[in-house]
Each structure stands twice: as structure tokens, then as C-alpha cells.
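hiii so um. not sure if this is the right channel but i have a protein structure encoded as C-alpha cells and i wanna go backwards to a sequence. like what aa goes where. can anyone help
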């Protein structure tokens, strides 16, 4: 019997170490160095003097960049183990940087690892894996979102180079990164699946012009981290085409699938943290003569949240297990499912936690608004939930055939007619008088 809901003892020891390490050594960074501009900007001194020593401790435990194969310095743990790790890592904002698993670098590293030349691996992959540089994934366009059928940013071959022209929107981290992986049209007349290609574009290439850096709603600071960028006659050598001409769509699907799953894993940590905070508050706060925890409507909130988190956690771990069994491409239904569930549970549980803390919950003295911002982004970034529902419905329907004849298969009169032919003896019993 293979069903087992516990981790093997050696791995459980690692999980215990991660939990303790994050609580005692990483969470202080969340409190003191909370601004996004600090943790996104590698040239900030905190990275060298504060983060680096923590990363060394993670490496010493053999827990660095665990999503990667051993050849690339990871552990090749597979998605299920990653799920158990990431649900702890998700409890802290700085933890993904501490463990070398932050988006979008984790997915971009995999693309270069698979398709980059030796020189590109030396120049970009190695420092990326060591956490010394950052990267960007530049796909969404202002007029079309992430729908590749409508992309217009394109590249044409010119001698030994490719020349890229067009605009991209929401290219996160572009202003901090060393290179971007840019998805552009190379065969406009080909079917969508074969029309685009991926290019490695060093950030300092002439013509990579940021029009502005977009902020999310409540973020402070003059500039955000999501670039609206114009690629103007950006010239890159032919070997900067990653994974062959026309393979951009397939590479994007593979890359984004892993990223979506990892977001979901970390979200388990976010919502569990919200439940912890709700329980502590309910046991500590009195209102109208009794503790919040004694009010049935509060109990309903706690119980509902617990049930939903349990369901979500099992769904995510099952999706991770499925990827381990059949690969990401064959687990697209499961990945799309957790993608949708991630945004939904995160929004609902964060809002409940915010509410349970009253005015304090809505203030800047608690982390709920930051969490809500991430939760809302989850419903849109990497594709809107509606689009993923379309994927799921398509996949589910593949397992079914249209009904023959006039009536559905479970139409009772038709079933009875059929049973009279195949199970006539049962009718004798059905017609017997009931014993008194
Ligand atoms: C925080 C954040 C970070 C991001 N980072 C990056 C990045 O690093 N790189 C990058 O390339 N992109 C990035 N994006 C962009 C993101 O991938 C897109 O916003 C997303 O794919 C949706 O595209 P869109 O915004 O154009 O929305 P649209 O595609 O215009 O969709 C808008 C709405 O229309 C509805 N809708 C759309 N399609 C359907 C459908 N088939 N059926 C029913 N309803 C539908 C949905 O309600 C949807 O929310 C980021 C976005 C955010 C918010």
C-alpha cells in the first residue's frame, strides 16, 4: 500500500531544520528589511552582508536551490519533497532568496541550463544559481496580455544576429536583472504553437529601453519593479536563441508550469500563517464579554479556513506527486487546478485574517495588505484563473464521449428498460411484498 502522509525520518529532520532556521534567522529580515526594493536589489549591501551568510548555512545543509538537478547544484528532490519544503519557505518573504528558489529566477535557470551554450551558462547560469544576479521573464505584451496568438514583438534574422523589435509589459525585475529571457514572434505565419522563440537578452544590450516601471496599487516608492519595456533594434547573436526556432510556446508552457506549482506550494505557508494568526488573535481578544474564540461565527471562520487549507494542501501535494510521476507536460490539468485554487484560497483566507484583526488587520502594522496584494496578483499573473479553467475543462472533456441516443446514460426509464434485458431476475425482488 503506497499511500503515506508522512515524510521519511531523514527528510523530516531537514524539514524541522528549515522550519526552525526560518523562524529564528530569516524572519527577522522580514521585519527589519521589509521593503521590496531591498530584497529585489542585489546591489543593496544587505545581500552581501546579511543574506549571503544565511545562504551559506542553507548550502551547508544541502538545501540550496533544491528544484535543480544535482548536476546544477541542486538536490533533484522532485516536486513532492519541494512541496513539503516550500510550504515552510512560503511563511517568510525573504526565505525564497535564502533558499535560492525565488521566482522568476528558478524557472529562468532551468531554461538556460537546458538550452544555453557553455559561455552563457558560465556568464549567467552560474551567478544566477549562486544568487549573485537576477533575471527577468519578458513575455506579456501591453495590447495582448499573455495570449501568444496576439503577440507582435518580433525578431528577424540579420546575418549572424537576430534583431528584436516590440514592446513587453509587466517584465518583473527588469531594472534589477542581468539578463531577460524574451519570448518573441519569429514566424508570424506559423500556427501559434510554432510562431515564437525564446531569446536570452543581456540587460545592458543597446535598445532595451524601459519606458516606465509599473507599481502594484498600494506599493510605495517612485518606481515599481514591473517594466513596460520597448525593445528597439535589440541585436543579439544567433546563439542567444534558446531551444531552437519556433519552440518558444512549448518552453514557456514548461517553465510556467513549474513556477505555478511552486507559487502554490509557498501559498500553503502563507495561508497557514494566516490561520496561526487568526487562532492566536481569537484566543487573546475579548469583545462583548467573551473571547473571539468563543463566538460561533468566529469558530466558523476558523473551521472553514482549516478545512479549506487541508483540501488545498492535499491538492497541491497531489499535483506535485503527479508531476513526479508523469512530468509537468502531462500534469497540466493538475497544475492549472492548483493555480486557480491558489489565488482563491489566498484571497479568502487573507481577507478573513484581516477582518478578524479588525482595524489593526487593515493597518500597516500587520502584513495582511501585502499578502492580499500578492493574493490578487496570483489570480492574474501567469495567466488569469479563467484561462486556466478553460484548460481544465478541455482536458476533462477529452476523457468523455458524447451520449448516443436521446436520453442521458443515467436516465432512469432507459436504465430500467436495459436492466429488464440484462438483469431480469432483480425485478422479481423489486416486486416482492415488503416483509412486515
Ligand atoms: C504582479 C505581476 C507580475 C507579473 N510578472 C510578469 C513577468 O515577469 N513577465 C511577464 O511576461 N508577465 C508578467 N505579468 C503579466 C501577467 O502574466 C498577465 O497580467 C497575465 O497573463 C494576464 O494578462 P493580462 O493582464 O493582459 O489580462 P487579460 O488577458 O487582458 O485578462 C483580463 C481578464 O479578462 C478575463 N479573461 C481573459 N481571458 C479569458 C478567458 N479565456 N475566458 C474568460 N475570461 C477571460 C479574466 O477576467 C482576466 O482576468 C505579471 C503580472 C502581475 C500582476
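sure thing!! here u go:
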Amino acid at each position: 500500500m503506497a499511500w503515506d502522509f508522512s515524510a521519511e525520518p531523514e527528510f523530516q529532520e531537514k524539514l524541522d531544520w528549515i522550519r526552525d532556521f526560518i523562524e529564528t534567522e530569516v524572519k527577522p529580515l522580514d521585519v527589519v528589511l521589509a521593503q521590496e526594493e531591498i530584497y529585489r536589489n542585489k546591489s543593496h549591501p544587505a545581500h552581501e552582508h546579511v543574506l549571503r551568510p544565511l545562504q551559506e548555512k542553507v548550502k551547508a545543509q544541502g538545501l540550496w536551490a533544491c528544484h535543480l538537478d544535482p548536476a546544477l547544484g541542486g538536490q533533484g528532490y522532485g516536486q513532492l519533497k519541494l512541496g513539503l519544503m516550500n510550504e515552510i519557505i512560503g511563511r517568510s518573504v525573504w526565505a525564497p532568496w535564502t533558499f535560492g528558489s525565488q521566482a522568476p529566477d528558478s524557472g529562468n535557470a532551468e531554461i538556460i541550463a537546458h538550452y544555453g551554450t557553455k559561455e552563457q551558462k558560465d556568464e549567467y547560469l552560474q551567478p544566477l544559481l549562486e544568487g549573485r544576479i537576477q533575471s527577468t521573464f519578458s513575455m506579456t505584451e501591453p495590447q495582448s496580455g499573455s495570449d501568444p496568438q496576439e503577440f507582435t514583438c518580433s525578431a528577424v534574422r540579420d546575418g549572424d544576429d537576430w534583431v528584436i523589435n516590440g514592446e513587453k509589459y509587466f517584465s518583473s525585475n527588469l531594472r534589477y536583472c542581468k539578463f531577460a529571457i524574451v519570448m518573441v514572434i519569429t514566424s508570424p505565419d506559423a500556427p501559434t504553437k510554432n510562431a515564437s522563440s525564446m531569446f536570452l537578452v543581456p540587460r545592458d544590450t543597446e535598445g532595451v529601453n524601459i519606458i516606465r516601471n509599473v507599481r502594484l496599487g498600494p506599493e510605495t516608492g517612485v518606481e515599481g519593479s514591473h517594466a513596460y519595456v520597448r525593445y528597439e533594434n535589440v541585436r543579439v547573436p544567433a546563439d542567444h536563441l534558446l531551444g531552437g526556432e519556433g519552440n518558444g510556446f512549448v518552453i514557456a508552457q514548461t517553465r510556467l508550469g513549474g513556477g505555478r506549482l511552486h507559487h502554490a506550494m509557498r501559498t500553503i505557508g502563507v495561508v497557514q500563517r494566516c490561520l496561526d494568526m487568526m487562532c492566536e488573535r481569537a484566543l487573546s481578544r475579548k469583545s462583548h464579554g467573551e473571547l473571539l474564540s468563543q463566538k460561533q461565527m468566529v469558530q466558523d471562520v476558523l473551521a472553514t479556513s482549516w478545512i479549506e487549507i487541508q483540501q488545498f494542501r492535499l491538492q497541491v501535494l497531489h499535483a506535485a506527486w503527479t508531476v513526479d510521476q508523469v512530468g509537468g507536460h502531462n500534469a497540466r490539468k493538475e497544475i492549472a487546478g492548483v493555480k486557480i485554487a491558489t489565488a482563491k484560497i489566498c484571497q479568502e483566507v487573507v481577507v478573513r485574517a484581516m477582518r478578524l484583526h479588525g482595524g489593526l488587520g487593515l493597518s500597516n502594522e500587520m502584513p495582511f495588505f501585502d499578502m492580499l496584494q500578492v493574493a490578487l496578483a496570483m489570480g492574474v499573473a501567469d495567466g488569469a484563473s479563467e484561462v486556466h479553467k478553460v484548460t481544465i475543462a478541455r482536458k476533462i472533456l477529452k476523457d468523455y464521449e458524447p451520449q448516443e441516443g436521446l436520453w442521458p446514460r443515467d436516465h432512469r426509464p432507459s436504465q430500467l428498460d436495459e436492466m429488464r434485458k440484462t438483469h431480469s431476475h432483480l425485478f422479481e425482488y423489486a416486486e416482492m411484498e415488503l416483509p412486515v
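oh and Residues 16 and 424 are 62 Å apart (CA to CA).
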